[in-house]
Specification:
The chain has 113 residues and is mainly alpha-helical. It has four helices and no strands. It has a domain at 35-113. This is Multidrug transporter.
Length: 113
């Protein structure tokens, strides 16, 4: 009976301790580290090459996408997303880069041309 009392006390104490811990979330406007920016330079160079390759794949796949009615989805996946990742993403930002309002604005400008 005494062991049950101690177990219950420990469980309630742990629950109260964990429920009062304050969670700290990082903001989206955190500046990237210099290492992230240095890594981003070769990633962007590779991105230019992969953008050209994915554009060539789009040219080959476009007749099939046109027949299936998915030309817009294919265009976005093979051309617009690599372009945005390479040219519109902020330097050193690899996570949540699509939530950047400037990137969405540039993508809309690219699509409207």
């Amino acid at each position: 009976m005494m062991a049950l009392h101690w177990r219950r006390t420990i469980i309630i104490s742990l629950f109260l301790a964990f429920s009062t811990i304050e969670c700290v979330a990082s903001t989206r406007n955190d500046t990237p580290s210099s290492a992230a920016i240095m890594v981003d330079v070769p990633v962007r160079i590779l991105g230019v090459g992969l953008t050209m390759v994915s554009s060539a794949i789009f040219i080959v796949a476009s007749p099939f996408a046109l027949i299936s009615g998915s030309l817009d989805d294919t265009w976005n996946a093979l051309v617009i997303e690599p372009l945005e990742f390479t040219f519109a993403r902020p330097m050193g930002k690899f996570d949540d880069w699509k939530t950047n309002p400037n990137a969405e604005k540039v993508a809309l400008e690219l699509e409207n041309r």
